[in-house]
Structure formats: C-alpha cells, structure tokens
Amino acid sequence: MTTRAPDIPSADQVATMLKAAGDPLRLQILRVLSNNAFGALELSEIFNMRQNAMSHHLKRLAGAELVTSRREGTHLFYRRSTADSGFDAMRGEIFAAADRIPLADDVLARIGRVEQERARCSREFFRQNADKFREQQDLIASYPQYGEAVVAMLDRLPGRGEKAALEVGPGEGELLPDLHRRFARVTALDNSEAMLERSREFARGRELTAVDFVLGDTGAAVARGLRADVVTLNMVLHHTPAPAAVVADLARVLKPAGVLVITELCEHDQDWARSACGDLWLGFAPEELIRWAQDAGLRHWESEFLALKNGFRVQIHQFSNQP
Question: Can you name the residues that pair with 75 across neighbouring β-strands?
C-alpha cells in the first residue's frame, strides 16, 4: 500500500477546489480580493446580495483553501489564501484567471464606496482627535520608539543631500527635522487637514523652510505627479482603507533607484486599538507587506523588528525599484 505525500493533494481535494472556483460569482469574489480584504457584509454590499448568501460562497471558497479569514476583534475579514500547500500551483492558476476577469462598472463603483466609507471614518477620527494624537499614539507605538531605527535606515542611503523625500502621514511632524537635515527637499502628505496643520505648526516652530505640505492621499499624489527619491510611510497603513493600493501608489511616486521605507505594526489581536486609535487594521504580517511591495514592482532590501513593552511589535522594511 502506498502512502500519499502530505503535500500532494488528493483527487477529492482537487475536485473541491475546482468546484469552488467553477462559479462565476465566486471567481469575481476572488478578483475583488486580489489586493484588499473585505468582510462578508462589505462583500454583500459590493455584489448587491444578501449577507447569508455571500457567507455561503465564502464558506465554499474557504473550504477549498482559496480564501482565508482573519478575525480582527469583532470583525472577520476575508483574503485570498497564501498558505503553503500542495495547491500552490493550481491556486495560482485560478487566481491568475480570476485577475483577467473585468469587473462590472457597478461592482467597481460599490468597491469605491466601501473604501471611501473606510477612509471617511479614518479622516473623521483624526479630525475629532487631532489634539489627542500623541496621547493615542503613545498607547501603541510612539515616534521615539521607532524613529531612531527609521533614521538609521535612512542614513545608510547614499547621496541624501541631493535627493527629495516624501513623508506620507507625518503625524505631528517629528520625523520632519531629520528629513530636513538629510534631504534637499521634503514634502509632507496627509489626507487629514487637521493633522497636516499640526505637522505644519511643528515645522514652522523649528524653522524647517524646505518642507512643502500637501493635502491629499497617495492617489492624489500620483495624479499630481509628485515624485521623490525616498518615501517614508510610518504607522500609516493600518489607518488606510486599501493598504496594497497605497503601496502601489507610492511605487509609482518613486524616482528611478528610489527607496520606500515602511514602518508598521505586526499583526496583533488588541481590538481596542480600533476605537482608541482609529485603526482600520490590526497590523499586518510581514509577508503581506513584502508581497504588496513586490506586486508593485519593488525589491525587498532589508527589515528590522522592534519588540515593544506593551506587547506590540513594529516592523520596518526598506524597498527599492532599483533592479
């Protein structure tokens, strides 16, 4: 009697995956999940159907290891599965086929509305809590806890004095003095007018004359033609409605041989961060950030991890579009 190797799928497993993928709606769900995670209610809104019907389709996809779910406090979000298994090749072919499916205009419009609502909630939180920003950040990871490591990573970059830097989501502006000393020109980008004004006041008080302040998100930065040699994104992604899209936008902003530095929380289960700090996501797995950057055409250069006393972990990654 022969024993099947554990990493080789059985005929039943292959059939389960093919049956799950062999439905037009489920293929469209996989297409929508290509670069973002959504809850069952959000997906039911996107496809204009009842939530219990959507939950049935998600259960079929999860049973076939095509999607996976992650509970973030009281929220359950679905993503494409990336688990290592004997299904990798076939699953990759299914995802590739799904990605060639054009989504209807009304579906794209409803995706946009879901993401706009996420962004609206985030902006409203910061509008109401701009004066409490430092207090809230101190609950999780304040700038002094990771800023030195970010600056050290920037100091390893050659030719800084002739380059332009872009900081996305500058918060209260604490990194701006270090950027101002190291780069010829600095731009601070934020989609919250209240937070942008706080960083502007911080820069004004320290006479940082070579800093431009731009109101908008990363999509607006691409549309405006902003370009930078170095982009920093510190503790921002977990506040954004579509993190992979942000990384893709910043890859387009980079000049040739440009560098993107991302500082983020590792995934955690402390759901209170949603209400206390306005977080949309409870951190990210390092592999997830790296995959988004690679999908955007960037190479992963180095990483650093910092353990904080409150149980959170911070990850810092450097990416480049240099071949």
Answer: 72
Spatial CB neighbours of 191, under 8 Å, sequence gap ≥ 6: 119, 123, 215, 216, 217, 220
Q: Please count the structural domains in the chain.
A: 2
Structure tokens at 50: 């009842």
CATH number for 281: 3.40.50.150
303's CB contacts (< 8 A; 6+ apart) are: 286, 315, 316, 317, 318
What string of DSSP letters covers 77-132? EEEE----STTHHHHHHHHHHHHTSPPPHHHHHHHHHHHHHHHHHHHHHHHHHGGG
Domain carrying residue 73 = 11-103
Per-residue pLDDT tens over the stretch 150-171: 999 999 988 777 899 999 999 9
pTM of this prediction? 0.82
- Where residue 38 sits, what CATH number does that domain have? 1.10.10.10
Report the percentage of the chain scoring pLDDT > 70. 93
Nearest in space to 141 (alpha carbons), one of 312, 323, 297: 312
User: Given a cut of 50, is residue 54 above it in pLDDT?
Assistant: yes
- Higher confidence at residue 269 or residue 153? 153
| CA dihedral angle for residue 18, residue 19, residue 20, residue 22, rounded to 10 degrees | 80
Residues in Cβ contact with 162 at an 8 Å cutoff, skipping those fewer than 6 apart: 184
**Distance from C-alpha of 291 to C-alpha of 53, rounded to nearest angstrom:** 31
What does 210-228 look like in DSSP terms, one character per residue? Answer: TEEEEES-HHHHHHHT--E
